[in-house]
C-alpha cells in the first residue's frame, strides 16, 4: 500500500460542505407520474403548479390550527352602541360631552369669602353646611312655640299675668337662639381654592381655619345612614403637621362631589383649569389688573 499524497480529510469539513450543498440545492417535488425523490421523508409534497390550500397544511406536526377564511365573507366592523360613544365625544375645546361628573359653580366668590383670598390663588368654590345642621334649633323653636303658647293661654285663663309674661320672655329667648343658629349657618362657609381649604365661621368673633393642599396626607368623608339619605357627610382631613387647625368638618352637602373636587385639585389641577375654562393668560391678566 502506498502512502497518501496529502493529509487525511477533516470530517468537520465534509459535514460543513454537505450542509452548504443541502441548503443551496432546490427541494424536489413529487410528480404525478414519478416517484417521490424528496430528501425529507414525511414532508407533504405537491405536484408542480398545484397551489397550496388556503388554510395551509396541517400534518399533525404543528399546532393543529388552521386559518381557514371564507373568501366571500366581507369584513364587518365592530358594533358600538350610542351609550358607549357618549363618553368618547368631545367638544371643540376637548372637553367630554357626556354627563358631568361634578356640578358647575359660580366663577366668582361672594363678598363674604373674597376678603380671605389673596390675589394669586384661584377660587374653586364655597359651600354652606347642609340644612340638616338647622334641624335641632328649628325643632327646639317649634317645641317651645307649642309648649309656651299652651302654657301662656293656660296662665292667662288663671289670671296669673306675671307668669304669662315670663313664658313670653322665655319664648322670645328661644326664638333668639334659633335666629342666632340660622345666622351662624349662613355665615359658615367651607372654601376650596387651588392652594388650600378653609372654614370661615362666626358672627361676632370670626374664625378662619385653613390647611394647604400640599400638606394634606389623607382625606376621607363619612356618611351615616341618615347622611346617605339626605346627602351630607363629615370630612376628615389629615395633615403632615401635628397641630391641625382644620381637621373635621361636619354637615357638608354633596360629600362625594366635594371629595372629587378636592382630589382633582390635588392631583389634576390642569384638568380643573380646562373644565372651568380658565387659562393661564387669563390668570395673568386678572393678576395684573
Q: How is this structure best described in words?
A:
- With 289 residues, the protein is an alpha+beta fold.
- Helix content is 38%, strand content 15%.
- It has nine helices and seven strands.
- It has helices spanning 11-24, 82-86, 111-114, 135-157, 161-187, 225-230, 255-267, 269-276, 280-288, and strands at 123-127, 189-193, 196-201, 207-212, 216-222, 232-239, 248-253.
- The strands form two sheets. The chain has a four-stranded antiparallel beta sheet.
- Helix 4 runs antiparallel to helix 5.
- The longest helix has 27 residues, at 161-187.
- Residues 30-34 and 51-64 have low confidence and may be disordered.
Strand content: 5-15%
Shape label:
elongated
Radius of gyration computed on alpha carbons: 42 Å
Report the major sheet.
4 strands, antiparallel
Helix count equals 9
Quick structural overview:
By secondary structure, the protein is of the alpha+beta class. It is built from nine helices and seven strands.
Amino acid at each position: 500500500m502506498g502512502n497518501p499524497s496529502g493529509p487525511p480529510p477533516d470530517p468537520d469539513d465534509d459535514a460543513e460542505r454537505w450542509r452548504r450543498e443541502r441548503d443551496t440545492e432546490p427541494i424536489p417535488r413529487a410528480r404525478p407520474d414519478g416517484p417521490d425523490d424528496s430528501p425529507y421523508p414525511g414532508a407533504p409534497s405537491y405536484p408542480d403548479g398545484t397551489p397550496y390550500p388556503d388554510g395551509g397544511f396541517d400534518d399533525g406536526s404543528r399546532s393543529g390550527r388552521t386559518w381557514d377564511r371564507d373568501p366571500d365573507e366581507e369584513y364587518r366592523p365592530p358594533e358600538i352602541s350610542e351609550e358607549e360613544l357618549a363618553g368618547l365625544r368631545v367638544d371643540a375645546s376637548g372637553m367630554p360631552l357626556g354627563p358631568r361628573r361634578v356640578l358647575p359653580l359660580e366663577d366668582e366668590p361672594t363678598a363674604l369669602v373674597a376678603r380671605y383670598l389673596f390675589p394669586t390663588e384661584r377660587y374653586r368654590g364655597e359651600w354652606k353646611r347642609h340644612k340638616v345642621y338647622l334641624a335641632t334649633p328649628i325643632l327646639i323653636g317649634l317645641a317651645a312655640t307649642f309648649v309656651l303658647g299652651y302654657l301662656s293661654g293656660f296662665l292667662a285663663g288663671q289670671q296669673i299675668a306675671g307668669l304669662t309674661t315670663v313664658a313670653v320672655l322665655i319664648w322670645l329667648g328661644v326664638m333668639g337662639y334659633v335666629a342666632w343658629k340660622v345666622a351662624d349657618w349662613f355665615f359658615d362657609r367651607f372654601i376650596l381654592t387651588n392652594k388650600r381649604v378653609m372654614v370661615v365661621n362666626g358672627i361676632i368673633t370670626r374664625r378662619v381655619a385653613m390647611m394647604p393642599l400640599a400638606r394634606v396626607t389623607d382625606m376621607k368623608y363619612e356618611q351615616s345612614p341618615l347622611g346617605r339619605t339626605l346627602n351630607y357627610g363629615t370630612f376628615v382631613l389629615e395633615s403632615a403637621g401635628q397641630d391641625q387647625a382644620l381637621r373635621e368638618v361636619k354637615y357638608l352637602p354633596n360629600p362625594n362631589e366635594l371629595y372629587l373636587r378636592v382630589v382633582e385639585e390635588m392631583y389634576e389641577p390642569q384638568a380643573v383649569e380646562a373644565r372651568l375654562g380658565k387659562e393661564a393668560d387669563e390668570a395673568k391678566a386678572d393678576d395684573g389688573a
